[in-house]
Amino acid sequence: MANVSTTRMSSKGQVVIPENIRKNLNLKAGAQFIVVGDKDVVILKSITPPSIEEFDQLIAKAQQDGKKAGLKKADISEAIKKVRGKQ
Predict the structure, then answer these.
(1) pLDDT tens digit string along 55-86?
(2) CB-CB contact of 42 with 35 (8 Å)
(3) Among residues 46, 43, 13, which one has the least CA distance to residue 29?
(4) For residue 81, what are the CA distances in angstroms to 41, 57, 76?
(5) Which residue(s) pair with 9 in the sheet?
(6) How confident is the model at residue 49 (pLDDT cuts 50, 70, 90)?
(7) Strand, coil or helix: 19
(8) How far apart are CA 34 and CA 18, in angstroms?
(9) What's the CA gap between 47 and 80, in Å, rounded?
């Protein structure tokens, strides 16, 4: 069963995650969250950056998909210039 606790929001909009929840979820200072709000529900979802291995897999997949689509390095450079407004 999930841990349940109550907390309050400060005048600055800060909310303290109770200690028992932090310990249970192994949350450390500096942890980052996605915040979703709908009507009277607020959800905090902790996020972590991908590991180096996961990042390498993502890059390899993107390169493979780019080759399948027929993209060249020049195409990517041109797209970057266009988005940055340098064309």
Answers:
(1) 999 999 999 999 999 998 888 888 899 999 87
(2) yes
(3) 46
(4) 42, 26, 9
(5) 15
(6) confident
(7) helix
(8) 18
(9) 28
Helix (H) or strand (E) holding 38: strand 32-38
**Measured distance between the N- and C-terminal CA atoms of the chain, rounded to whole angstroms:** 57
Comparing CA positions, the residue from 59, 53, 52, 34 lying closest to residue 44 is: 34
Q: Are strands 41-47 and 32-38 parallel, antiparallel or unpaired?
A: antiparallel
DSSP letters spanning 64-85? HHHHHTT--HHHHHHHHHHHTT
Can you tell me the distance from the alpha carbon of 87 to that of 34, in angstroms, rounded to the nearest whole number?
Answer: 35
- For residue 10, what are the CA distances in angstroms to 13, 43, 74? 5, 17, 51
CA-CA distance, 44 to 5, in Å (whole number)?
14
DSSP string, 39-53: TTEEEEEEE-PPPHH
